[in-house]
Amino acid sequence: MQESSTMEMTQLMNSNHSTLVEQLQQLKQQGENSLKQQDQKFKTLVNELSDRVQNNKESFTLLNGKENELDQFYHQLESQLNKVEGVVETLQNIENFSQMIRTNPESAEAYYQRGLNHQKLGDKTGAMEDYTEALHLDSTYARAYHTRGVILAEIGNRKQAVEDLRLAAKYYFEQGDIESYEQARNLSKEFYEVRHSPVNTETAEVIDSQDEMSQEMNSAPMDLVTVGGLFDDETDSEENISILG
Q: DSSP letter at 239?
């Protein structure tokens, strides 16, 4: 009877052990499933947050781009406004110097300053006329020769430009303005060398044609000023240099 009781106890323990193992396995499976679900939820949440961050970045980039566009547009408007203000100021200067000329028509300086403002606006014809009038009033006006020479070179009349710049250098030197003298002298050398550099006949004819056209375009009444032997190392083959002054 004691053996029977022992067997029953053993069977009961085995049964309880099996039940306990099953319960533990069930709990383990439930725990793993729960962890998987939590992990999936966490990954989903992370992905959602990542998408939101990315969308915010894209929105920020878009807004930043729009801000940059607006900033560029603002600077463009500001630049255009400055240009307009500069043009208005230059036109006002022209009117002021015109008034000075009406008051004192013998003022070479007023003509020269008005010419500078015409040149600033890109009005080369108006500038040339004023520089020429300034030289009519003062044939030793070095700056007027200098600036007129630059315009002549720009419109292709290098021969006349060289003559103007040589005269500018001469009068700068006589007036003790060595820095301006060197600038004008170097420019005259540069334009002289360009004009007399080896070129084919066709190119030379084109240059001469341009010079003639430029001279016709700027053929306002001018006096002839003759200067002989300004610079021995630079003079043309002609003994004297005739220049519109």
A: S
E strand or H helix that includes residue 57: helix 2-103
Q: Which of 122, 123, 99, 120 is nearest to 111 (CA)?
A: 99
φ/ψ region of 122 (left if φ > 0, alpha if ψ in -120 to 50, else beta) reads left
For 176, the token pair is 């003790």
More confident residue, 218 or 72: 72
Contact 227, 238 (CB under 8 A): no
**This prediction's pTM:** 0.56
**For 75-106, how does the pLDDT look when each residue is reduced to its tens digit (9 = 90+)?**
888 889 898 999 999 999 999 999 999 999 99
140 Cβ contact partners less than 8 Å away, ≥ 6 residues apart: 171, 174, 175
Give backbone dihedrals phi and psi of 179, rounded to 5 degrees, phi first. Answer: -60, -45
Cβ–Cβ under 8 Å, residues 144 and 212: no
Q: Is the dihedral of CA 220, 136, 153, 98 positive or negative?
A: negative
Residues sharing a CB contact under 8 Å with residue 185, sequence separation 6 or more, in sequence order: 165, 166, 169, 231
Q: For the chain, which domains are there? A: 93-234 (1.25.40.10)
